[in-house]
Amino acid sequence: MPNSIDVRNPRTGKFDYVIIPPPPKLLAQLCNRLRRAQVRWQQLSIDERIEVLQEWKQAILAERDRLTEALVNDTGRLSISEMEIDSFISSIDRWCRLAPDLLQDSAKNTSIPFIALQQTAVPYPLVGIISPWNFPLLLSTIDAIPALLAGCAVIVKPSEIAPRFVAPLMTALNAVPKLRDVFTFIEGAGETGAALIEYVDLVCFTGSVATGRKVAEIAAKRFVPVFLELGGKDPAIVLQSADLDLATSAILWGAVVNSGQSCLSIERIYVAESIFNKFVSLLVNKAQQIKLAHPTLESGELGPIIAEKQAAIISDQLLDAVDKGAMIHCGGKVEELGGGWWCRPTVLTKVNHTMKIMTEETFGPIMPIMPFSQIEEAINLANDSIYGLSASVFAESPELALEVAQQIEAGGISINDAALTAIMHEGEKNSFKFSGLGGSRMGPAALKRFMRKKAFLIKTNSANNPWWFDE
Ligand code: NAD
């Protein structure tokens, strides 16, 4: 395992930060310590755990400026970093509101009059979280908060590409000793992530399909549950009756926000052929108004491409598309500005499913558009993917849009809007195909993933049961 890892700044291209992964022995000791402290944490009442999380929230608010600065250096963008912090803080409050009801035990009569049933659930002792770089704070804490409230201890291995936010977050954690004992972050790359899986009782992984498969294999050997939240190639379908002004504004946001570096970005657009030209010209017009946040953080809406490897993927997919006949209407290349990699909103037509840009995850602000003549054709194109994370359908009649949505193989589908699961985490959903595995990370089910259910079956009379041996 390397002693240290240099971290690149996405705006300057300079390696100006260093992280040090824990040696294997230290990682083992850390996990043992968390596991021991979890016993006391589980014994606290839910109200006591909520109180501790609220204390942490106050400590985070005190560190807000440092946290913002660290996230800006990690990702090169400002307003999304602020949104990320707001969303993180409101998710602490949301889970604190929901948890007491979700953690209630229940007792009921059963189909056998003299057997009562009591249901309870116990937390997995130690949860391991491995997270990506695109929303570093949000995706390293989205599972941690419900897991902690459920009574688990949690250890997080965030991405080595955007790890600066960990220092201010740890300062806030250290201010709350009861939480610090059961919740921590470790730095490191893939090897540290892989090593962590050996010590935990449940794994939440967010990242690529390729890594997800490796993580699932290690977890399977140990028989520990694993929840995988992986990549996507989200389609948007725009039917003939759709409100084009609304559809183009929603799709532009859904495809381009955070420079397209979101698992639930719209990455392919299928538009009814009768409105195709009008849709393209409206979208291009709007896309051209979006500016890069360069040279300053406030110069525009779009930050740099955070991971250098991603800039290479976007370039390769654009070249492949143009080689195979695609037409670029705006944007169209990855540019180097001040040492960072940037990409303007890009609209492409004359695309098809032989191109990587229509089939592989891009993770950039790219909007390839294909016409369709029949709704069935649009549904087939949308489902012609190894992915099934989310999707959008636009139509004048929500009923018609819902009918189409029913036939799309994806877990979260926005109707007459885009990427709503980024904003609202209330609806339970599962990933389809290679976009993931396991229970819903959203809605009430998210917290229940961290508990093992127990059924107490209680005999309430003193007579012999009819199915026992005759005496
Ligand atoms: P990645 O798979 O390269 O890395 C994710 C994490 O896994 C990192 O922390 C990395 O250090 C760690 N890792 C790498 N190799 C490992 C191994 N062998 N064992 C254990 N851990 C290992 O992904 P990325 O490039 O950081 O993130 C981008 C991907 O994440 C995209 O595919 C995106 O769609 C996906 N993503 C999915 C969601 C979702 O909710 N479905 C959300 C955000 C991002």
Automatic annotation (TrEMBL):
Keyword Oxidoreductase set for record: yes
Annotated InterPro entries: Ald_DH/histidinol_DH, Ald_DH_C, Ald_DH_CS_GLU, Ald_DH_N, Aldehyde_DH_dom
Originating species: Calothrix parietina FACHB-288
Active site: E229
Family, similarity comment: Belongs to the aldehyde dehydrogenase family.
A Pfam match: Aldedh
Full protein name: Aldehyde dehydrogenase family protein
Annotated keywords: Oxidoreductase
Domain Aldehyde dehydrogenase, residue spans: 6-455
